[in-house]
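Translate sequence into structure tokens.
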Amino acid sequence: MIAYIKGTLDSIEGERVFVEAYGVGYDIVCPNPFAFQTLIGQEVKIFTFHYVREDAQLLYGFKRPEEKLLFSKLLNVSGIGPKGALAVLATTSVADIVGAIEREDEKFLTSFPGVGKKTARQMILDLKGKLTEWLPVEQDETTLFFDGDVTTGETTQLVEDAIEALKALGYSERELKKIRQELQKHTLNSVDDYVRKGLALMLQQ
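Result follows.
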């Protein structure tokens, strides 16, 4: 098992990031690869899950260890494969997912691509009560990186950076125009948060 990879972020292509470590290039599939966009050319540490099946071996990568852990838990839920687990993690935070499971919020859980009522119910049955320790982790990590309120000007810049990241993911200017105003209504702390929110809004179109 490869627990994490630490090296230079070489490039981002589609759903993948490419990291070079000791002369080896690693192809890593991420739920939101453009969370790493500002780190190209810099050293990064990506927490990885080595997925092995008969016809392929894939590395899935995450910015935070709790995202990797939740991914592994989701894979154990009947009806959820790697693609579905990535879709869940791409559009919201670990805290939001855990909160929805604890509240038995099927409506929230079925908003994810490929998650129907049966799968949402299975997520609740399998995971409720087993993930609550992760709620303060998400909150504490946010506190570490952000001190103070985000200003209007900062919000605008974060939204514009998020829009650029979404363009790189393949969304058109026309599609993004529909969600730009909605994104401006939210006060979030990072480009990553706005990209997640934008992806969630796209799913509602």
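Note: The radius of gyration is 17 Å.
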